[in-house]
Design a protein that fits this description.
By secondary structure, this protein is of the alpha/beta class. It contains 13 helices and eight strands. It has two domains: 181 residues, 3-Layer(aba) Sandwich (Rossmann fold), CATH 3.40.50; 84 residues, no CATH class. The structure holds 1,4-dihydronicotinamide adenine dinucleotide and the ligand C[N+](C)(C)CC(=O)CC(=O)[O-]. It catalyses: carnitine + NAD(+) = 3-dehydrocarnitine + NADH + H(+). Keywords: Cytoplasm, NAD, Oxidoreductase.
Length: 326
């Protein structure tokens, strides 16, 4: 990382945010920033993007009202622009949420760097690419120092966590600025000092996900069994206590030391036999069919509403319904 400071305004003074790519995650970011009282510009090349985006924001709004809107927050503060350049022209922060394709991210981030006012930080929502692989090189007026990863969780308007990490050419101050900005904007931030594949949370989720796919591929468990095993089991604990402290309690008063001495040897076998499953057509279809079966009569909109209410109930029950001020 380099040391140069890119920030043209303090994180506390940001009023205008641009969201580039307005699908599931970009739309979720738009809803979050609007609820926090920012003026938001959005751009997405899909012909029906504005209609879809406004529907996503409207569907999220009841949940956001329950959480508490910032003063002046309004869906009317969203402007969908015809071009990327218009979206970022006056932005004080840019959140990119385009499809997870490396070449697309590279060229889009270079285009954003060229179009965004000097010094404004540009964050990518990527769920796994290191910024080092996506950011432009120094030279030809490029400013890779202001590019960071700001990895959110779905939906960004309800799940607090954002993982922030820079690439090799990112300025240390851009990482610090982004972390502070997300904090001011109501997110819960983990700032990483090095790039890891999948960052922290996805690396953990991917381990769980890999095993879920193995079990479905081998007919060892249904999709519903797998989901119930988490929602009726460890998931209840994980909403307020992470896997490490949770397992420390499994060691009784002897804590993590006793837990590792007791269970470590028996866990060695599962740890060392794990490999990625082959995601072939058969497994893909089995997962799709299993999810359709688990959803039953519930539509996508029903499931989104159910999930949103569930997350709000958990946040409320665990005392984490934050303030509305930014
Ligand atoms: N879906 C998820 O659960 C999560 C996704 N992410 C990340 O967020 C990013 C976006 O993913 P999703 O929202 O799920 O995808 P999506 O497919 O729902 O949305 C992508 C949007 O980008 C637009 N788009 C296509 N080409 C573009 C371009 N050149 N410039 C700008 N926009 C363009 C599409 O029209 C679409 O609306 C990815 O980097 C993904 O890894 C991060 C956390 C969670
Ligand atoms: C499925 N996913 C890898 C894109 C998920 C994420 O990146 C984070 C999340 O919302 O769980």
């Amino acid at each position: 990382m380099t040391d140069t400071t890119p920030a043209p305004c303090a994180p506390e003074d940001v009023r205008r945010v641009a969201c580039i790519g307005a699908g599931v995650i970009g739309g979720g970011w738009v809803a979050h920033f609007l609820a926090r009282g920012y003026d938001v510009t959005a751009w997405d090349p899909a012909p029906d993007a504005e209609d879809k985006l406004r529907r996503l924001v409207a569907a999220a709004w009841p949940a956001l009202e329950q959480l508490g809107l910032a003063e002046g927050a309004s869906q009317d503060r969203l402007t969908v622009t015809a071009t990327l350049a218009e979206a970022v022209a006056d932005a004080q922060f840019v959140q990119e949420s385009a499809p997870e394709k490396l070449e697309l991210k590279r060229s889009l981030l270079a285009e954003l760097d060229a179009a965004t006012p000097p010094g404004v930080v540009i964050a990518s929502s990527t769920s796994g690419y290191p910024m080092t692989d996506m950011q432009p090189q120094h030279g030809d007026g490029a400013d890779p120092g202001r590019l960071v990863v700001g990895h959110p969780f779905n939906p960004p308007y309800l799940i607090p966590l954002v993982e922030v990490v820079g690439g090799e050419s990112t300025a240390a101050d851009a990482v610090a600025w982004s972390s502070r900005f997300y904090d001011v904007a109501g997110k819960s931030v983990i700032t990483m000092d090095r790039e890891l594949p999948g960052f922290i949370a996805n690396r953990l989720q991917e381990a769980l996900w890999r095993e879920a796919l193995h079990m479905v591929a081998n007919g060892e468990a249904t999709v519903k069994d797998i989901d119930d095993s988490i929602t009726e089991g460890p998931g209840l604990r994980w909403a307020f206590m992470g896997p490490c402290l949770t397992f420390a309690l499994a060691g009784g008063e002897g804590g993590m030391g006793h837990m590792l001495d007791h269970f470590g040897p028996s866990l060695k076998s599962p740890w060392t036999r794990l490999e990625a499953p082959e995601l072939d057509r058969e497994l893909r279809d089995a997962m799709v069919d299993g999810c359709e079966e688990a959803a039953g009569e519930r539509t996508y909109a029903d499931l989104v509403a159910e999930r949103d209410q569930g997350v709000i109930d958990v946040l409320r029950a665990t005392g984490r319904l934050g303030g509305t001020a930014r």
